[in-house]
Amino acid sequence: MFQRYPTKKKVLYSLIILSFIVMETPLILLANTTEPFVLGMPFFLFWNLLWWFVLTALFLIGYLINWGSKESSETVIDES
Amino acid sequence: MTIGVLIIAAFMIIPLVIGFFAATKSTKTSEDFFIQGRGMGAIAVFFTVAATWWSSFAFLGSNATFYTNGPVYLTALAWNLLFGFMYYWVGKRVWFLGKRFNYITASDLIGDFYNNEKLRIIVAGILLVFTIPYLQIQLTGGAYLIEVASGGVIPFWLSALMFYFIIVTYVWVGGIRAVAWTDIIYGALLFFGMMYAGYYISQHVGGPTGLFNGLLETSPEHLTLPGPLGAMGYPMWFSLFAVTAIGAFMGPQIWLRMYSVKSGKLFNLMPFLLGFAAIAYMGSLLAGFTGVLLEPGLANPDQILPVMLMEYAPFALASLILAAGAAAAMSTANSQIHAISTIVTMDIYKRYQNPKASQESIIKVGRWSLIVFSLIAYIMALVVPGVLVTIGIAALAGTAQLLIPTIGAISWRRAHPTAAIWGLVVSIAVVLLFTFIPVLKNPLGFHAGVWGLLINAILFVTISLALKRTDEEVVNRFDVARNDYNKAYHPELVEENHSDKKREAL
């Protein structure tokens, strides 16, 4: 099934999964420190906001590229 | 004081007006009362999902958690993103099947796909039992706020009662349309209230930069895991993320908001919008952390924001922000009461008591169950004490378990009813044991809900692989529907002639 996925879909979903891995696996503990302060924020806060921003941006890109699928046609629903 | 009471009065009257106006747009069918005839547009969908999902758990619980336990609540950024993504990936498929086979509740989809009455009842039971405590915390949170905003003039029991009177009235007359429309106002108020409250309060300690520097000197453990009490390390970080997002997503109120949507395309933008809105938690972070510097040692941490506002902000502003907090509670409570009434009406009354019930009698039962269940939650709010986040997570851990059979139903033809039943029964038992028996509490630091999900998934997959479904007709009917879904939204995945062969077989 995965081989049917267009490349842009594979890249998009891989980046989404990667972002969740960075935010929610024990890897997050690597950023669990107050120093250095970045933009006036403790590092742990900055790190979380950074990945929140990345993932939110990926979701916007997902919307703009129709989540990597060909253009959809909702008419199929009404026909069946 | 008078201004505070006036703001609260306005806050109570506006939703009533909206509710009665929404009622003029409704048609007298149960589908309209419960899911707005599957015709809800983009703005209403976003605001009603966001405002329903953000509850007093988000508005009060977040401040309290930053205040007592440090940064663990930052995991909310990721859980909002996960919630948004599930709303797209799972929600759109649920919506499609709902439209195809006329579903209104979670039991409709799960019961139909697994072709099993027992499972249908288990699902309805889980949703009812675990939604009521979550409803109770909305009431408790909202009533705290009204009590404080009125300067104690309106006592807790009365503010909780007023709350429920207003909600029941407008849901009674306007159904889900009234809920969604009032949620537009509540959602906006909640978002800006959270942001502004944090920003305003933090100005008293030199703004965000001054705040973080102050914390670094006085209480640096508030800035890293596991927090000042040492209790909120990585296991809780992950547990809150998984249990909150999945549990809230599987709540009956969100199920209705999957079925109500007018067009599948509306789901595509929701991950971005719901994820983006999570920035409002920065307001909670600022407010909770400022509390550490300004009001250390508060007996009830859930009241940190109201207490600081009353002390450091002008009364009118404080009341307005507290009204926003009450909006958070109300916008979740209204949807939950409405959703519970839907389960009682459609899954119990219509299915088992009176299958030939007329539209009028269905709506009538729906309305009366609003009153009964809100009364139960009201009594619980008065007699069962507890910290908002703790009760909230325990309730969410229960509903979260439904995700496993739901993913099975929307994506896997081998998913087996016996597997779904055993997965649910064992995982709910695990959640209850690991929550209520002190020696078994949270093994390895992970919340009971996470263990439940793990055991549920293992049982579900292994039993499904071991057994074979004999009801080919149902399995094929769903196969055709899923293939039609792909045809409509993911044409690159469609196998040639797949759907047509199955359709012929039916």
- Taken from the alpha-carbon principal axes, the silhouette of chain A is elongated
The tally of helices of chain B reads 22
Largest interface by Cβ-Cβ < 8 Å? A-B, 42 and 46 residues
List SSEs of chain B in N-to-C order.
Answer: HHHHHHHHHHHHHHHHHHHHHH
Tally of separate domains of chain A? 1
Helix content of chain A: 55-70%
Integer average pLDDT of chain B? 88
Residues in helix, % of chain B: over 70%
Radius of gyration of chain A using CA atoms only: 18 Å
Terminal CA distance of chain B: 69 Å
How many strands, which pairing sense, and closed or not: the largest β-sheet of chain B?
none
What is the multimeric organization of the chains shown? heterodimer
Strand content of chain B: under 5%
**Classification by helices and strands of chain B:** mainly alpha
Organism (chain B): Alkalihalophilus sp. As8PL
Membrane topology (chain B): Multi-pass membrane protein
Protein name (chain B): Sodium:solute symporter family protein
InterPro entries (chain B): Na/Glc_symporter_sf, Na/solute_symporter, Sodium:Solute_Symporter
Q: Which terms would index this structure?
A:
heterodimer, A: 80 residues, mainly alpha, 56% helix, elongated, disordered C terminus, B: 506 residues, globular, Na/solute_symporter (chain B), transport (chain B), Sodium:Solute_Symporter (chain B), transmembrane helix (chain B)
Topology summary:
The complex is a heterodimer of chains A (80) and B (506).
Chain A: H1 7-24, H2 43-64, H3 75-79
Chain B: H1 2-25, H2 30-35, H3 42-53, H4 56-69, H5 76-101, H6 106-114, H7 117-149, H8 156-202, H9 207-218, H10 234-249, H11 252-259, H12 266-277, H13 281-294, H14 304-312, H15 315-353, H16 359-383, H17 388-400, H18 403-411, H19 417-436, H20 448-466, H21 472-489, H22 498-505
Helix pairs in contact in B: 1-8, 1-15, 3-8, 3-12, 3-15, 4-13, 4-15, 5-10, 5-12, 5-21, 6-7, 7-8, 7-15, 7-16, 7-17, 7-19, 8-9, 8-13, 8-15, 8-16, 9-13, 10-17, 15-16, 17-20, 19-20, 21-22
